[in-house]
Amino acid sequence: MSQRGRRTQEWDVRASTLARNTHNLIRSIVENLTVEPNPSKPFIALSVGDPTTFGNLNPPEQVLQAVRESIELHTSRGYGPAKGHQEAREAVAEYSAHQGNVTAEDVILCSGCSHAIELVISVLADSGQNILVPKPGFMIYKTLAEGLGIVIKYYNLLPDKQWMVDLDDLENQIDEDTAAIIVINPSNPCGSVYNKDHLNDILDIASRNRVPIIADEIYEHFVFSGNEFTAISSLSKDVPVLTCSGLTKRFLVPGWRLGWIIIHDRHNILGKEVRNGLANLATRILGPSTLIQRALPAILKYTPQSFFDEVILFIENQAKMAYEELLRAPGLRPIMPQGAMYMMIEIKISHFPEFKNELQFVERMVSEQSVFCLPGRCFEYPNFMRIVLTVPEDILREACQRLVIFCKEHIDIGEKCKEIDNNIIPVTNETEFICDN
Predict the structure, then answer these.
(1) Separation CA 372–CA 349 (nearest Å)
(2) Cβ distance 402 to 41 under 8 Å?
(3) If you compute the radius of gyration of the chain from its CA atoms, what whole number of angstroms results?
(4) Number of domains in the chain
(5) Any domain includes 400
(6) Angle between helices 271-282 and 113-124 (to 10 degrees)
(7) Do 138 and 218 form a contact (C-beta atoms < 8 A)?
(8) I need a surface site. Which of 41, 95, 111, 312 has the fewest CB within 10 A?
(9) Pairing state between β 241-246 and 374-375
C-alpha cells in the first residue's frame, strides 16, 4: 500500500482552538461543586435564571394559542429565510417602536438572545480586539468572545449607587482595539435600571471615542414601580447601537429560543458591511424555529398588558420581601433591585472568619441549609451572591429565613455586636444576651 498522503503513524484528533477556549463560567463553577445538600431540609435553588423552573409563572393563553395555531400551518414546518420570515420581522419592528425608528430591514431573528449576542460580537470584533463588559455582568459575553480570541475588558458598576456605571472607569478601559461597549439594562445580575441622564452619559463616552454599543435589553420593560425603562437606542444621536432582545424573559418562554437583533444606525456609520455581515452570520444556522416565528406576530400583538403587569408586580413583591427578610441577616447587605429578576447580596466575608471567600460560604450554606445561591465569582465579582426572585413566595421566604439562620450561626460574635450597635441588624433578646456576655 502506498504511504503517500499519510500524515502520521498515530491518531491525533484534537478539539479546535474555539472549542478549547470556550468556557461557561457559571456552568463550570456550579458543576464543580461537590458538596451535598442537608438531607433533612428540602433543597432550594435560588441560582437558576429560568422563570419557568418552579412552574408558578406561565405564559398567558394568548401566547399558547398562537403556537397551537402555528402548528397547523404548513409554512411553520419548513426552513425560513436566514434573517427570519418577513411577517415576524415586521412584528418585532412594530413591537420595538420604543427603541426608535425600526423597520423589518433592521431586524434579524435569532435562536434566543444569547445567539443574538453571539452574532453582534462576531460581526463587530476580530481576534485581538476587545469588548467592554460590565462587572458584575452576565458572563455569556466571556463564553462567546474568548473562544474567538476576543479579549474581555471589564468596567465597574457601583453597588452603592444602584449599580450605576463608573463612567470614569468605563472611559479609561477604551483603547484603539475596543470594538464595542456592552450595556445591560435592566441588568442581570444586578437588577439595576438606568435613567435617561445616565444612559446619555454612557452615550457621550461612546460618541467621544467612536465606539458602537451592544445593548442587552432582554429585560426591557421589566421594571419595578418608580422606575422607567428607556432603550438606549432611542437616545442616541450618532452612536450605532445593536440591540439584543427576545421572548425569553418577558414572555416566560426561554425554551422557545426566539430572540432578535435590531440595528440602530441613524447616520449609516456601520454601512452595508455590518448589515451584510450579520446577514452572512445568520446563515450559519438558517434562522430560528419557524414554528415560533409564525406565531410571533400574534404573540407580540395579543399578549395583554395585564399579564406583564401581574408578573412584574409578583417579582417586585418578591424583591421587597426578600430584602426585608435579609436585612435581618448579620453580615449580609442586600441591594434592592429596580427591575429584572435578580438581587445581588453582599457577603461581608471578614465577618465570617471561617470562610476564605464567598464560594466557601455558599458551599457551606448548601450543606447546612440546603439553599444554593450563585457565588459572585460567576459574575467576576467576589464577596457577593445572586438570588433569583421568580420562585414561589413561600419557598423564597423559607430560603431567606434559612440564610438568616446560617449567618447568625457563623458570624463572628464581635462583628455581630458591632452591627447591632450601628443599627444594621435589629436588637433581640438573643442578641442582647450574646453581646452583654
Answers:
(1) 17
(2) yes
(3) 24
(4) 2
(5) yes
(6) 130
(7) no
(8) 41
(9) unpaired
Q: Give how far Cα 7 sits from Cα of 11, 15, 373, Å.
A: 10, 18, 50
pLDDT at residue 434, as a whole number: 39
User: Which region among 129-133, 134-138, 411-415, 433-437 has the lowest average model confidence (pLDDT)?
Assistant: 433-437
Confidence band, pLDDT 50/70/90 cuts, at residue 431: very low
Q: Which amino acid is at 27?
A: R
> Do 274 and 198 belong to one domain?
yes
- The helix or strand, by DSSP H or E, that contains position 297, with its residue range, turns out to be helix 290-302
Residues with Cβ < 8 Å from 74, sequence gap 6 or more? none
Report the pLDDT value the prediction gives residue 30, as an integer from 0 to 100: 79
What would the grid cell of residue 432 be?
442582647
pLDDT in tens, 79-127: 999 999 999 999 999 999 999 999 999 999 999 999 999 999 999 999 9
Provide φ and ψ at 267, rounded to 5°: -110, 20
Dihedrals φ, ψ of 170, to 5°?
Answer: -55, -50
On whether residue 428 sits in a domain, the answer given is no
What are 407's three cell numbers? 449567618
Question: What number of other Cβ atoms are within 10 A of residue 195's Cβ?
Answer: 14
Q: Where are the alpha helices (DSSP H) in 327-392?
A: 358-369
Q: How is residue 436 written as a grid cell?
A: 452583654
Q: Which residues face 223 on adjacent strands?
A: 339
Q: Do 247 and 222 belong to one domain?
A: yes
Query: In 96-220, which residue ranges form alpha helices assigned H by DSSP?
Result: 113-124, 140-146, 167-173, 196-209
What is the pLDDT confidence band of residue 379, given thresholds at 50, 70 and 90?
Answer: very high
Residue 413 confidence (pLDDT):
72
The CA-based dihedral angle spanning residues 76, 82, 83, 85, taken in that order and rounded to the nearest 10 degrees: -20
Domain that holds residue 393: 17-56+306-410
DSSP secondary-structure letter at 341? T
CATH number, residue 403: 3.90.1150.10
Sequence-distant (≥ 6) Cβ neighbours of residue 125 within 8 angstroms: 131, 145, 148, 150, 179, 180
Q: Across-strand partners of 157? A: 165
**Planar angle of CA 243, 258, 90, nearest 5 degrees:** 65
